[in-house]
Amino acid sequence: xxxxxxxxxxxxKGRDLDAERGVECPGDLPAASDPSLVARARAAKxxxxxxxxxxxxxxxxxxVIQFADVTGDSFKLARDAAARPDAEFIVFCGVHFxxxxxxxxxxxxxxxxxxxxxxxxxxxDMARLAQVEDAWDALAEAGIQDSVVPVTYMNSSxxxxxxxxxxxxVVCTSSNADVALEWAFAQKADGGxxxxxxxxxxxxxxxxxxVLQMGxxxxxxxxxxxxLPSGGLSREExxxxxxxxxxxxxxxxxxxxxxxxxxxxxxxxxxxVLVHPECRHEVVxxxxxxxxxxxxxxxxxxxxxxxxxxxxTELNLVKRLADxxxxxxxxxxxxxxxxxxxxxxxxxxxxxxxxxxxxxxxxVNRVTVDPETEADALVALQRMLDLPGKSHRD
Length: 394
Ligand code: 13P
Ligand code: SF4
Known about the structure:
α3 runs parallel beside α4. β12, α14 (315-324) and β13 (329-332) form a beta-alpha-beta unit. The chain is built from 16 helices and 13 strands. The chain has three domains: 3-120 and 342-363, 3-Layer(aba) Sandwich (Rossmann fold), CATH 3.40.50.10800; 124-250 and 376-385, 3-Layer(aba) Sandwich (Rossmann fold); 253-332, Rossmann fold, CATH 3.40.50. Helix content is 38%, strand content 14%. The chain has a five-stranded parallel beta sheet with strand order 6-5-7-9-8, with helices on both faces. A four-stranded parallel beta sheet has the order 2-1-3-4, with helices on both faces. The chain is of the alpha/beta class. The structure holds 1,3-dihydroxyacetonephosphate and iron/sulfur cluster. 1,3-dihydroxyacetonephosphate binds next to α3.
């Protein structure tokens, strides 16, 4: 097996521009032990002034988030990036697919920087364009392609978004997956029984949204395994399905289990269990509330003092919520530490290096999407931004 065939490159080793994969950092990073890092980041940001706009995803480390001009989930950050046409540099503290989306949604004159290019996403890597195109052809052979609308989660590479744009589909995030699915089913002439969605790449978000919010039966959801011929599905299974779920998942949210929910409920009677929809369906079924990172934050902000919460999402966010709400008891829904290792690649030394390089006139780690991919991906992203109303999860 060659190194590019590995599901995940050993971080920082090698280069694969077709994927959410790492490359070596080309410069000299400041030492993590350097006591002046905070002052250096502040000085570099001040020197750049309005020329730079720093975006921070909620799963970023505190040491990085303190320098974000705005924080948000992937949906909010995509909108925020598009709303700052005057900023010359967008420094994206998040992962590669988010930086790509920011590049697509901003003008060609604006340059998007990802402080560490090894900050990819294992879920996004689980759907490669060639695999998705093969699946699309197989759906044509099964005689159902005309009734399928492709919907991709924001957590996918730009070429998968472009595939959706080219084929009448849309992007969604965990804040608006229900609205996107409604839109997708309505695209087909009858908008009803025969319409199907190919949902990429997160089977859990697709299943949780379809079953819990759209009233689609669990047995109308099938899983397409890209490693098997015909996705491992028979023609009949495909014809009967309403949701064709790509076999992808988040390695962080996939860790939460039902038995920890049971254990915490036994230990803390009255505890509220709040999880992200990237969690497995069995875990979501046991939870009290499910929603995007923005929903999780708003729910905790609105919670009564004295209430107890178990939260199933990335640990940086859960820790930050616990620190910000000492009047509530907030526990993590896993026995072990559960950070997103790629989100955590962005640390203060990388941020300082990226900002100081910009001050010195060098744009490092620029993320660009080629114009053809960008045009098609923009179609799917714009469809998402134009979706009517707001999800109840927002
Ligand atoms: P949201 O930001 O859409 O809540 O997604 C969570 C996530 O896993 C980001 O990588
Ligand atoms: Fe990808 Fe999961 Fe990390 Fe988000 S939390 S970047 S979906 S691996």
